[in-house]
Amino acid sequence: MIERNKNLKKIQLYWRQKAGFKDLLTVAIPVIISTVAWTIQHFVDRMFLTWYSAEAIAAAMPAGMLHFNSICLFMGIAGYVNVFIAQYHGAGEEEKFGRIIWQGVYVAIFSSGLIALTYPFADEIFRFIGHDEKIIQNEIIYFRIMVLATFPMIFTSAASGFYSGQGKTRIIMIINVIATGVNILLDYLLIFGNFGFPEMGIRGAALATLIAYGFAMVVYAACLYRPANNQRYKTLADFKFDGLLFKQLLKYGFPNGIQFFLDIAGFSVFILIAGRLGKAELVASNIALNINNLVFMPLLGISMSVSILVGQFLGNDDPEYAEQISVRGIQLAYLWISPFIVIFFFFPDFLISLFNVSRNGQEFESVYRMLVIILRFTAVYSLFDVINLVLAGCLKGAGDTSYTMKIIALTSLTIMVIPTYICLNIYNLSIYFGWSFITVYIVILGIAFFLRFRSGRWKDKRVIYRKNRFIPDFPEIPTPEL
């Protein structure tokens, strides 16, 4: 009985103490729900397209990933606003919120104009990739509509940082859940032509996504620029372009965006290479990544929450609490992923069956056999992806983005992209060689981030300048006397 009471008190301590599970889950639950909503949106989108035609699902993932890959660098920069907000919040400098948010908006304006230049070249891009003609036509349609969604996507990435950096994640959850509902409803109406709407196939899926992001952008703008926020945080009044602050955002946000870009680019190249092996390999890989995203998005939510709290603790000069919340994040992430590792490895049939409602049951048989083996690769690398995601969030929240960028740049190219290209494109080996390289890549990333975390070097990093404390990574401002 005494031992039982001791264990109960220990659990209560882990829950209630500062930087304990309560603090983490208060921020994380709305973020997790938001990321799950976003994932469900893409999952249902892909599932509906699978039901519609093999060409539609085969085209949606490459075209979607190519567009996302083209904007993720800018999303990484604009989205890094939330780390500035988190550290300003921890330091009690709320009056600086508006200025940094506007620098993120300027990133969205510039980048959306740049990405628009790819619109007329979509035909050449996908013909160069070399998929089947029917798939190419679908890829062009999907990509061009997604180009129009660029500004809403990057704007919402910056605007949501205003709330996430403060730990006010419920409003993000509400907006994302409603936007997901809008997207799914429009998917159902526009892909299949239900309730009198025209049957638009992959075009309908892309339009649904565009409208959903546009809706989220309008709601974020209405909330962000309302009079109360403007009065307290200068969200509307402090719109001036600040060259020094913009440079500081680029200094930390650019490595974050490059990391984001390289990570997505590696998987994009893999999908494009897989498409050259054949339709079955492309469809199986698309579905596997879709299933993987559905399970791993809550981990991304935990990673984002750790990043927010690490930023707040470091802004308040509490590095030990920042370390503690990161450990709690890893523990929570393993609690989530462990059952799915078992399902991926031993019981994959249920997940695969969700995609086998098409009119091509016999054709799906070869896809099914590949998926069973591919999901076992997913089970293995999941053990390390937990460490990868959570500790990457910790390093991001501190401002240690250069390290993460360098590690991903080195490993993505040398361990995943080049070996996959050689084995699959030159020697025409099995798709399983490609998934083996993905597994090794994630294992090495997890080990690298763990070693960096244990070194403690990230604890001295900051992205903001404070009048009463010298931040060594901001050389443009004179060092005050200590």
Summarize the structure in words:
The chain has 482 residues and is an all-alpha fold. The protein has one domain (14-460). 81% of the residues lie in helices and 0% in strands. It has 18 helices and no strands. Helix 2 packs parallel to helix 9 (170-192), helix 5 runs antiparallel to helix 8 (150-164) and helix 12 runs parallel beside helix 17. The radius of gyration is 22 Å and the shape is globular. 54% of the residues are buried.
H and E string = HHHHHHHHHHHHHHHHHH
**What is the multimeric organization of the chains shown?**
single chain
Largest sheet: none
Low-confidence stretches: 468-482
Which terms would index this structure?
mainly alpha, 0% strand, 81% helix, 482 residues, single chain, disordered C terminus, globular
